[in-house]
Specification:
about 230 residues, alpha/beta, Rossmann fold, six-stranded mixed β-sheet, four-stranded antiparallel β-sheet, 7 helices, 10 strands, about 35% helix
């Protein structure tokens, strides 16, 4: 599904390697954790996969297509197939839970009828069917992140990218969010999560890719955050 070949990313005029000669393959339906200290290159890799940034050199293939050669319309189609989940939720404060999730479909051109069908299903999947008329300020942090996950899955993506999705949550809410990701993955969606939540990674024992100073240090299936 994803093939990354010798990708490097340089910042500050070529002085700093955000990624250096990174190679990685990911099959459809996998669940992968990206771990490593701040500045290791986790967020950079997420942005490259979303086609938000371009690497300095190397190749990235998504479902057999060279994403670096995309035209504008190809980039839009690529992003439609990916759900993004953020640490700070990125909900629109003036919109209800339903409207926040619906907005992800509105910008993709879904019809009102399709939106009315799809949004409630997504909210039920994350356990928030009873909260569709609430506003973000009325929700806990865990609930806000579940809205963010509903917004990511409502368009039926083949891949979900999550950048520190539990970074603002307490341990119990973080565990619930990880269970949600696991349930989504079991339905066939590929998951990539960049995280510092070492205890949760160790508990879940999925594939773990450890980065350090932009380099791939370790790639272990059923892995932990340490050797």
């Amino acid at each position: 599904m994803i093939e990354i070949n010798k990708v490097s990313m340089l910042y500050q005029g070529g002085k700093i390697h955000a990624l250096e000669e990174m190679s990685l393959q990911l099959k459809a339906g996998e669940f992968l954790f990206l771990v490593g200290p701040s500045g290791a290159g986790k967020s950079t890799l997420i942005k490259l996969l979303f086609r938000e940034q371009l690497p300095t050199k190397g190749e990235i293939y998504f479902e057999g297509k060279d994403i670096l050669a995309y035209k504008k319309e190809d980039i839009l189609a690529h992003r439609r197939s990916i759900g993004m989940v953020f640490q700070d939720y990125k909900l629109i404060k003036q919109k209800t839970v339903f409207e926040n999730v619906a907005f992800a479909l509105e910008i993709l051109g879904f019809s009102p009828k399709e939106i009315q069908q799809k949004v409630p299903k997504a909210l039920e999947k994350v356990g928030l069917g009873h909260k569709e008329n609430a506003f973000p300020k009325e929700l806990s942090g865990g609930e806000q992140q579940r809205v963010g996950i509903a917004r990511a899955i409502v368009k039926d993506p083949v891949l979900i990218l999550a950048d520190e999705p539990t970074g603002n949550l307490d341990r119990d809410n973080a565990l619930e969010v990880m269970k949600l990701f696991e349930n989504i993955n079991e339905e066939g969606t590929t998951i990539i999560i960049a995280t510092h939540a070492w205890d949760l990674v160790d508990r879940m024992q999925k594939r773990v890719v450890a980065l350090s100073s932009g380099k791939l240090e370790r790639d272990e299936r059923g892995g932990y955050t340490h050797e």
